[in-house]
Amino acid sequence: MKISEELRCLFSGKVEERDGSYVVEVPEQELRLGELQADETYRVAVLPTPATNEVNITDATTEPEQAPQTPPVEEGEQRTVEIEDIGDQGDGITRVERGFVVIVPDTKQTERVTIEITDVRENVAFAEVVERVSYYE
Predict the structure, then answer these.
(1) Strands (DSSP E) along 1-137, which ranges?
(2) Which CATH number applies to 77-132: 2.30.38.10, 1.10.3210.10, 2.40.50.140, 3.30.70.360?
(3) Cβ of 81: how many Cβ atoms within 10 Å?
(4) pLDDT in tens for each of the 137 residues of the chain?
(5) Cα(88)–Cα(133) distance, rounded to whole angstroms?
(6) What are the residue boundaries of the structural domains of the chain, listed by start?
(7) Where does residue 115 rank: exposed (0-12), middle (13-18), buried (19+ CB within 10 A)?
């Protein structure tokens, strides 16, 4: 199956019936870390997974359909980014693929910088400024 480059987030959930409608709950983390905004409309793809009572022995020994997502950055990688926000500790914040957060100390909001990723964790990465970039370049 081909997955669109426009994919904003990917998570597992259940379709539930509530008051005559069907609801898919979006995890809070997807709104905090991703590109999703509350009260906006998005196209949603719903993919089936086997129900627990349908799993047989061969299913239990195969790899899961959806592997956990790995961070979209690696230590040592360099990127040119725009600082989108300033965190509680005063560090710059930018987001890359799938809304993955990269924290960049010693930067200002709207500043364009080339960064080098120094530490990658499951939900966040840290980077240092390599070069400050002019918007006219």
Answers:
(1) 15-18, 21-24, 78-82, 85-86, 92-95, 101-104, 112-120, 124-133
(2) 2.40.50.140
(3) 19
(4) 455 566 666 666 778 888 888 887 777 766 666 567 777 777 777 766 655 544 444 444 444 455 567 899 999 999 999 999 998 889 999 999 888 999 999 999 999 999 999 999 988 999 999 999 987 76
(5) 24
(6) 77-132
(7) buried
